[in-house]
Specification:
The complex is a heterodimer.
Chain A: H1 21-42, E1 45-47, E2 50-54, H2 60-66, E3 67-69, E4 75-77, H3 80-111, H4 115-126, H5 133-144, H6 149-152, H7 162-185, H8 190-198, H9 203-214, H10 216-231, H11 235-239, H12 248-256, H13 262-291
Antiparallel strand pairs in A: 1-2, 3-4
Helix pairs in contact in A: 1-13, 2-13, 3-7, 3-10, 7-10, 8-9, 10-13, 12-13
Chain B: E1 10-20, E2 26-37, E3 42-46, H1 53-61, E4 68-73, E5 76-77, E6 88-91, H2 103-112, H3 118-131, H4 147-159, E7 165-169, H5 177-194, E8 197-202, H6 205-211, E9 214-219, E10 222-227, H7 229-234, H8 239-244, E11 249-256, E12 259-262, E13 265-267, E14 277-284, E15 289-291, E16 297-308, E17 313-318, E18 324-329, E19 342-347, E20 353-355
Parallel strand pairs in B: 3-8, 3-9, 6-7, 7-8
Antiparallel strand pairs in B: 1-2, 1-4, 4-5, 9-10, 11-12, 11-14, 12-13, 14-20, 15-19, 16-17, 16-19, 17-18
Helix pairs in contact in B: 2-3, 2-4, 3-4
The chains are: A mainly alpha, B alpha+beta.
């Protein structure tokens, strides 16, 4: 007999030990250290010749992000950077939404196929991963450019517009939405769906009241792994959007490059990190609410 | 052929269904099955696994499309309707409770699909929870309940819809023996209290006899016999039924002037309703035999095996040709028996039946 069991967090058994040592080393040097360095940089002063930092504590970088000072020395709130952050959030949100709308039905549909068909379909979903993201983005440039396939089919030339960025991001992240949702939909007990129909529910109600709540963990995972990278995306806005519309990823890149303002670049990176952290925390809170 | 009258009767007429096995060969799951179930009856579909009983139940529920025949309920044809439009409900073998909902939410889900007032839903939920004695657990999630409690919740969820026919797909198979017995009694009580038609699938012949007003025995897609448990047990019409329901000894031989001869045994005083002839099959239940004393002696037979079952003895005898004869006896003679010895066998000839 199958009783659906809720996954429970079991504290303690995954504590540090010899086997997990490499993971801790990797995590410390490749994740922890860079974050610490960036956070420290954001509180230091700009180097004498622009690039680099000098060891002098200041909140100047954060002040630059939020305030501007005119020639008379008056400070006023600066919306420029906040606009860029807001625009990035909106874009990431829209990309996530479209990935959800397309990804949920796709994943459920795959999970309802025969086992052998499922394997083929999942392989098809993962095929784009075999090709480097840059190569795939260049392919989209060709498709969307003047004289490209979309142009020939009568669509306006979208290359170097926000639409191109949006299309490129949605394309790149859709598999990341489909896979975790499929992983939970595939575990759905068919008799539970039959029971819902048996109790008089229409297909739509079975989807909303039974299927989606039962695959919610897959959906949360999908949202997290689409929204977060989409928020900081750099490749697609640069190549497809032609960097015409500033997004936070490009902005950070510029601060370290052309603008030669490492502290401000670091401060923006820290703000981006804080935002994604808050979003992750809020989905975790929702998870707990659902589970209780 | 089938009487279609009766207001809420379930009429299954000439229903056939084939599947393709993984190799592509056609497998007949149901072969022209016809069965008429009057409203309020408790009917058990009994048979070994793969006999078609579950396919028939799923066809009535709407999860399988039948290839031929029709299914009527209360004079309306239902086999063309989708599952959610049929006035029947199912209790699944795996219970199929919604894991993210409490017991009360599971039950009200079915009622919310109809246009029922909130207050009415609440009282109906309370009513069925009372019926299955689950009132105290209404706010529990399925994962917080035992198998028996989940079983009751699944039953309540289906009954809350007030179905014309309740379909039960081996609902007790996952429970241990003691709990199963308790639930059998519960089911009988609930059946009486609701007056709903119950259609219960099982492969367990004891369960079938304990529960059913009538039993429909299936074998490889065919409906082989329908009758009350008493009829099925005392007058099986085929060797399959005789062996599947209870134990029995089947003897093949000829009958001449009320005397049966065959398989190394000779039985006198064969009942009149069994006509003379050759290649006759007679069936004798273990309790129709007795050892050491009786009226109608069959002769001396060798003891092959002795099984002590607590309240009774099962003795396996072998005829002179080696044919097995099953005898059920009082435990008091245990001390007088030993394997390999010969013992005199008697039979109550009135209990001898004939099969085709």
């Amino acid at each position: 007999m199958r009783i659906p069991v809720r996954s429970k967090r079991e504290p303690g058994i995954y504590g540090p030990n010899a086997v997990s040592f490499p993971a801790y080393v990797t995590g410390f040097f490749l994740v922890g250290m860079p974050l610490v360095v960036i956070t420290i940089f954001s509180f230091l002063s700009r180097g004498d010749f622009g690039s680099g930092v000098i060891r002098k504590f200041t909140l100047e970088a954060y002040r630059t992000v939020f305030f501007e000072t005119d020639l008379m020395g008056n400070s006023s709130f600066n919306f420029t950077y906040l606009h860029i952050i807001g625009r990035s959030v909106l874009l990431a949100f829209t990309v996530t939404l479209i990935c959800l709308i397309v990804g949920i039905p796709t994943a459920i549909w795959i999970a309802l196929q025969k086992k052998s068909t499922q394997r083929v379909l999942i392989a098809l979903v993962t095929i784009p991963f075999w090709v480097n993201v840059l190569a795939r983005t260049y392919a989209w440039m060709l498709l969307l450019s003047e004289g490209g396939l979309f142009d020939k089919l009568g669509s306006p030339v979208l290359l170097y517009t926000s639409w191109a960025t949006f299309i490129g991001l949605t394309y790149a992240f859709l598999p990341f939405m489909v896979l975790p949702i499929y992983a939970s939909a595939e575990k759905l007990d068919r008799s539970i769906l039959e029971a819902a129909f048996d109790l008089g529910a229409s297909g739509w109600r079975v989807l909303i009241r039974i299927v989606i709540p039962m695959i919610r963990f897959g959906i949360f995972a999908g949202i997290a792994i689409v929204f977060i990278p989409a928020l900081g995306a750099y490749v697609q806005p640069a190549l497809l959007g032609g960097n015409k519309v500033m997004l936070i990823g490009s902005l950070i890149n510029d601060q370290f490059g052309e603008s030669r303002n490492w502290p401000v670049g670091s401060a923006l990176a820290v703000l981006l990190l804080a935002m994604t952290g808050l979003i992750l925390l809020s989905t975790r809170r929702r998870k707990l609410e659902f589970a209780s | 052929m089938v009487d279609d009258s009766g207001w809420a009767d379930l009429v299954i007429s000439g229903v056939s269904k084939s599947f393709r096995d993984p190799k592509g060969a056609e497998v007949k799951a149901l072969a022209e099955v016809s069965l008429n179930i009057p409203s309020g009856e408790f009917v058990v579909l009994l048979g070994p696994s793969g006999c078609g009983k579950t396919t028939l139940l799923r066809s009535i529920a709407g999860f399988e499309k039948i290839d031929a025949g029709y299914i009527n309920l209360g004079g309306t044809r239902i086999d063309l309707l989708p599952p959610h439009k049929r006035p029947v409900n199912t209790v699944f073998q795996s219970y199929a409770l919604f894991p993210h909902m409490t017991v009360a939410e599971n039950i009200s889900f079915g009622l919310e699909n109809e246009k029922i007032e909130k207050r009415e839903i609440k009282s109906r939920v309370a009513e069925v929870l009372e019926l299955v004695e689950m009132r105290a657990l209404s706010e529990r999630k399925p994962s917080q309940m035992s198998g028996g409690q989940q079983q009751r919740a699944a039953l309540a969820r289906a009954l809350a819809k007030k179905p014309k026919v309740l379909l039960l797909d081996e609902p007790l198979a996952a429970l241990d023996l003691k709990l199963r017995k308790t639930m059998q009694i519960e089911l009988k009580r609930i059946h009486r209290a609701t007056g709903t038609t119950f259609l219960f699938v099982t492969h367990d012949q004891n369960e079938a006899m304990a529960l059913g007003d009538r039993i429909a025995v299936f074998n490889s897609g065919q409906l082989v016999q329908v009758g009350t448990p008493f009829e099925i047990y005392t007058a099986p019409t085929t060797e399959f039924v005789a062996n599947f329901i209870g134990e029995s000894t089947v003897l093949t031989g000829s009958i001449d002037s009320r005397t049966f001869t065959g398989e190394g045994v000779k039985i006198q005083q064969i009942p009149n309703q069994i006509a003379d002839g050759s290649a006759k099959k007679i069936i004798i239940r273990p309790e129709a035999f007795s050892l050491f004393s009786g009226k109608n002696s069959v002769g001396q037979l060798r003891i092959k095996e002795i099984i002590f079952a607590g309240d009774a003895l099962e003795v396996l005898l072998a005829s002179s040709t080696g044919h097995e004869v099953r005898v059920k006896s009082d435990v008091s003679i245990l001390a007088q028996l030993s394997v390999g010895n010969e013992v005199e066998l008697f039979v109550d000839a009135a209990q001898i039946g004939q099969i085709n």
